[in-house]
Every structure is written in structure tokens, then in C-alpha cells.
Specification:
With 295 residues, the protein is α/β, with parallel strands linked by helices. It is built from twelve helices and eleven strands.
């Protein structure tokens, strides 16, 4: 039984799609189909079933997955047997909140790759709730997210890595229109540009609006923080983001802060892992870099 087949099986299970798994692994569709056919033949079991457009694990596949994860974890430990990080060929799967990934993590990734040039970081841009859940179910090794979501299980070990203010911003021309985010019980004739509903800073600001009975004209939901910034800079509406995500535009005068009645809203970022997760030398290196430098 080829270890590559086991890894392919795990990736398909994580992605829920042969196509996305093939893109992640750099395989052709025919290679994926062949590998899974060989694995199913070796085990005499059907491992996947098609439900709608998704490939989901069969009952046999669900039973097999924990064994595969243990085998691949043992192989990863063998690859990291030496403490010489320059020779270590292991990998770490990391879930990161988009704002942290875009604006805080790049220099830390460079530092990691200088210390462990042959290692692989599999990085996923994810919502904070999804990161928490991924750490709990074992699909992520490490998560970098905002603990403000609450509900962090005692099964997670968290390392504080920074506290960041969140600000309401708009283009100078929009601020000149005099939008009021302090006085209660009125409507602001501007759209609110923000990302998905589970975004922690979206929840913070929408909670504040409800408390003050302030109503926005409408909400424009977008999947990209840089796109949100670009549209707000071009006078489309207002947004509520961590200061570090907009500080370049604030410094250049493309954006300005708007006053609110919120008392210094902040986000607390943490780096976390499951307490039962084996801390490989690579994982220890990543945790050390992130916690020492902050994000």
C-alpha cells in the first residue's frame, strides 16, 4: 500500500472534491482516480460516495480515516526525527484568519522558511469559527485567529500573539457627508462593506449598530479584504476592520477614521493547537516564531 495513496485519500476527505484535491496535490484527475481505485482494491471497500457535487466518505471511508491520519502522523514524526530543521521534510497545516494572513503573517513565514527551508506549510485562509472547529477535529495542526469568537474548548492550547484595535473608516469624501455613528435611532444612508457573516469584526460592529438602533442603508458582503478596502477608498461606503489592515490607506489619506460610540474595540489574536497534538520540531519552530514576534 503506497503512502501516497493514503495522503491522497486524506486530502480528498478534507477537500470534499477530487478536483480541489488534485489542484492541491498537483495531480491530474486520472492520477487521483487511479490511486483511489488501487486503495479501494487493496482494502476491498468503497471509500467515497457522490452526494450532489461533493465526494463524501462512505462508512468504510469514515472508519479508515483515523487510521490513515495516525499512519501519516507517524511518517511525519519520522521525517522530523532529526532536530536539524534544515533537513526536516515534514509539513504543517495551518488555518489563518484572512486579515492576519494578508497583513501580519508574511514576514513570519519568511523567517520560518529560512530556518526550515525543506518544510511545507499548507496554509488555508479561513473564518475564525472554522479554524476553531478544524483544530478540534484534527484537520488543522495550528490555527492563527481571533479568540473574541469565544467558545474555545479546554482541549485547545492558546498562545496570545497580539491585541489590535478595530476602526470604522471611509474615504474623506464620504466622511464629508457627515454620517453619524454616535447618535441613536436613525438611518445612515451609506452601505456597509464587510466580509462573511461569521467575521468577528462584522459581528462586533453589527452588534453595536443594534444597541444604538442605527440602521445602514444596506450591506455589501465581499469575500476579499483587499477588495473591501479598494471599494471603500473609492467612496462606495464604510467598513470596520483591524487598524493594521487599513493603516497604509490611513497614512496616505485614502481613508479616514469615523467616530463611533464604541469604547476602544480590540481584537485579541492567538496561535492555537489541540492539546493532544504532537508538537513536532517544525510545529515548535512555527509557534516560537509567531509567539516571540507577535503578528
Amino acid at each position: 500500500m503506497d503512502l501516497k495513496y493514503l495522503n491522497t485519500f486524506r486530502v480528498i476527505a478534507e477537500e470534499g472534491s477530487f478536483t480541489r484535491a488534485a489542484e492541491r496535490l498537483g495531480y491530474t484527475q486520472s492520477t487521483m482516480t487511479f490511486q483511489m481505485g488501487q486503495l479501494e482494491q487493496a482494502l476491498s471497500a468503497r471509500l467515497f460516495e457522490k452526494v450532489g457535487r461533493r465526494m463524501v466518505l462512505s462508512q468504510a471511508g469514515r472508519q479508515l480515516l483515523p487510521y490513515v491520519e495516525r499512519v501519516l502522523e507517524a511518517v511525519n514524526q519520522m521525517h522530523c526525527f532529526t532536530q536539524d530543521l534544515t533537513q526536516c521534510r515534514g509539513e504543517i497545516t495551518i488555518g489563518v484568519a484572512e486579515t492576519l494572513l494578508c497583513y501580519r503573517l508574511p514576514p513570519l513565514l519568511k523567517a520560518f522558511h529560512r530556518r526550515a527551508p525543506q518544510a511545507r506549510l499548507l496554509i488555508r485562509s479561513m473564518g475564525c469559527y472554522d479554524i476553531r472547529d478544524g483544530l478540534m477535529d484534527g484537520s488543522l495542526d495550528v490555527g492563527l485567529f481571533y479568540e473574541n469568537i469565544g467558545g474555545l474548548s479546554s482541549q485547545l492550547v492558546t498562545h496570545p500573539v497580539g491585541t489590535f484595535p478595530v476602526v470604522l473608516t471611509a474615504a474623506p469624501q464620504v466622511k464629508a457627508l457627515g454620517p453619524d455613528f454616535v447618535a441613536p435611532d436613525h438611518q445612515v444612508p451609506l452601505p456597509f462593506l464587510i466580509n462573511e457573516p461569521n467575521s468577528i469584526f462584522r459581528q462586533m460592529f453589527e452588534g453595536y449598530l443594534r444597541e444604538r438602533a442605527i440602521r445602514m442603508d444596506h450591506t455589501i458582503e465581499l469575500g476579499s479584504i483587499p477588495t473591501i478596502k479598494h471599494l471603500v477608498e473609492n467612496e462606495v461606503g464604510v467598513t470596520f476592520l483591524p487598524r493594521f489592515a487599513v493603516e497604509d490607506a490611513l497614512a496616505a489619506g485614502r481613508l479616514v477614521e469615523l467616530e463611533t460610540g464604541m469604547e476602544e474595540p480590540v481584537l485579541s489574536a492567538v496561535c492555537a493547537h489541540h492539546k493532544s497534538k504532537w508538537i513536532s520540531p517544525l510545529m515548535a519552530c512555527f509557534l516560537e516564531i509567531v509567539t516571540a514576534a507577535g503578528v
